């Protein structure tokens, strides 16, 4: 039979495999799950995960936990580069987090704003942000603008 010979009467989808319907069905008794082990049990999928090691001490428990991590105190910044400010604002404009949200350069004001020095700035701008990179601050003041830390 060819694909163009299939009639609308033919089933579009294959019938599902009916499991556990006696020895004559071919999928009786263990229903294709095999004997013993987590794979044969109902609800087994919750216990089989990538990190499961079958009774062996898990990888993360085998090593001593010592030292200090600063992850809890890490500050994430919303960043804006100079070339973005160059495109978005006219000379003499005030650049604040609120102004950046209004024009769509920042999603929201939850994160503190940091201005980075990538690109060139040719306009004098009054930039207010929580933090500036050294290059960004130098570039802003070089063209006669001001960099104010909030």
Quick summary:
With 150 residues, this protein is an alpha/beta fold. Helices cover 15% and strands 13% of the residues. The chain has a domain of 76 residues: Ribosomal Protein L15, Chain: K, domain 2, CATH 3.100.10.10.
SSE topology:
Layout: E1 78-81, H1 82-88, E2 94-95, H2 97-103, E3 113-116, E4 126-129, E5 131-132, H3 134-142, E6 146-149
Parallel strand pairs: 1-3, 2-4, 3-5, 4-6
Question: What does it look like?
Answer:
The protein is of the alpha/beta class. The chain has a domain at 74-149: Ribosomal Protein L15, Chain: K, domain 2, CATH 3.100.10. 15% of the residues lie in helices and 13% in strands. Strands 1-3-5 form a three-stranded parallel β-sheet. Strands 2-4-6 form a three-stranded parallel β-sheet. The longest helix has 9 residues, at 134-142. The radius of gyration is 32 Å and the shape is elongated. It starts with 77 loop residues before the first strand and ends with a strand. The mean pLDDT is 86.
